[in-house]
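My main concern about presentation is that the manuscript never shows what a single data entry looks like. An entry of this sort, consisting of the sequence and the corresponding backbone structure tokens, reads as follows:
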Amino acid sequence: MTQVLVVDDVAAMAEQYAYDLRRVGKYEAVIAGGGDDALDLLGREPIDCVVLDLEMPGTDGFEVLRRLRQRGIDVPVIVYTGTGSYDRCVQAVRLGAYGFIDKTEPIERLVQEIENAVSRGRMVTASPVSRRFQAVC
């Protein structure tokens, strides 16, 4: 079963997303209440995809993306935001996020993004061509 980590400092928002991901996507969903909790969990648990809020006190979503890269943790991250700032989402993608989605989008849209991200990740790791490409780079 696909395990998704929802990272949001607003507990009610995280719980609703986790519930909806379980119900609609049939995922196993776990919650982290902030960036540090997420990084700790990602270091211990096999997570298939992260749904990450950018705006959090302390370790925000941008810092989570930076630290994932520094630690070599290769997990697809979908940024979800309520700010609607396209520039901030582009910045997140440049830091390694797979994609972004607005919090107002229906949960089915997020489920589709997760499926795409997880499938792409599986294709990249399974492909002998990608392994050769990674070795060259």
